[in-house]
Design goal:
By secondary structure, the protein is an alpha+beta fold. It contains ten helices and five strands; from the N terminus they run ααααααααβαββαββ.
């Protein structure tokens, strides 16, 4: 607007329009190619046009603004040559005011962009810090959940032992006493009550055994038990574990998987000439899958040993299937157990 005021006293109509069009076009192109040599060339050309079209001197503040953004304000000095060829005080006044306004606007906008940049960097830092805190809180929560789970399993084990050692022994002694009384009893009137007492104690003993069994099954931390088994393997082996099982797996399945893993590791330590063992325990929607592989050379199974038979019996006890595959690349145990 300041630049346009300098055209008020212009005697021509076409020259101001041409100067305005050229200056605005060069300004837009300089913004498009900002930071490149093309922008500097465009600004310098605009200032040089002042020598051919004196009205361009009125638009010099706009070119100065673009030159300041390119950090090359001296590119506009070429436009000052018009003052020598056509000195006009009114043009000089409005151009000087326009240039001052361009410098002030540039400084204010630069400060604003610097502030926006700092705020953007601060926002990014805060976002990154919040993400790190979120990840740390998740890790702490998982650690706490793990500690609570382990403490719960230990408490269940303790309760199961207490029931087995105390209540179970008392009920066993009571059953023996009831059986002895029933044998030595000669009174027919007491025979039926003693039989009823023995049946009641039998029912209580069965219930206690089931409760202890359930508590013991629930208290098995399969992953930890597998990791403990791996830690005891011969040091010449490097063992990798791929584990993906839910905590709600039935106790008999856990015991079966753990038993096969222990037997497989024991067989590898005894018979394999390799140095690597990989274990994969996976839960799928319809079945559980276990694979144990080592890289020892084993072309065939010489004879079915007790260990392999034990693994077959364990798999069969939960309705699963197990296969043993020897090859030149190693020995592989594969077991699948369908979900009930």
């Amino acid at each position: 607007m300041i630049c346009l005021l300098s055209f008020v006293h212009s005697e021509s109509f076409a020259a101001p329009v041409a100067a305005l069009s050229i200056a605005v076009t060069l300004s837009l192109l300089a913004q498009t190619f900002s930071g490149t040599k093309a922008a500097a060339v465009l600004i310098a050309c605009g200032a040089a046009v002042c020598g051919l079209l004196p009205e361009m001197f009125n638009m010099l503040p706009l070119l100065l603004y673009e030159a300041l953004w390119e950090k090359k304000w001296w590119l506009t000095l070429g436009g000052l040559t018009v003052l020598v060829s056509s000195p006009q005080p009114d043009k000089l006044f409005f151009s000087a005011v326009g240039m001052l306004a361009a410098v002030i606007i540039f400084l204010r906008v630069s400060k604003l962009e610097e502030t926006v940049g700092k705020l953007t960097a601060l926002r990014d830092d805060i976002t990154e810090t919040n993400m790190q805190l979120h990840l740390r809180n998740d890790a702490i929560t998982r650690a706490q959940d793990s500690e609570i789970h382990i403490a719960t399993l230990k408490e269940r084990n303790r309760i199961a032992r207490e029931i087995h050692d105390n209540v179970g022994h008392l009920l066993t002694r009571s059953l023996l006493q009831a059986g002895a009384l029933n044998i030595i009893n000669k009174d027919e009137a007491l025979k039926e009550p003693l039989e009823s007492l023995k049946d009641t104690l039998d029912t209580a003993m069965t219930s206690i055994r089931q409760s202890v069994h359930d508590l013991h099954d629930d208290s098995i931390d399969l992953r930890k038990a597998v990791e403990d088994s791996i830690s005891s393997v011969d040091g010449r082996f490097t063992v990798s574990l791929d584990y993906d099982m839910s905590e709600k797996t039935a106790g008999n399945i856990k015991l079966c998987l753990l038993g096969v893993i222990k037997e497989g590791l024991s067989n590898a330590a005894k018979h394999s000439n390799g140095d690597k063992i990989s274990i994969s325990v996976q839960e799928h929607p319809a079945f559980y899958r276990l694979t144990i592989e080592d890289n020892g050379c084993c072309e065939k199974i010489a004879s079915t040993g007790i260990g392999l038979e034990n693994m077959k019996e364990r798999a069969g006890s939960v309705g699963g299937n197990i296969t043993f595959t020897p090859s030149e690349k190693g020995f592989r145990i594969f077991m699948s157990v369908p979900k009930q």
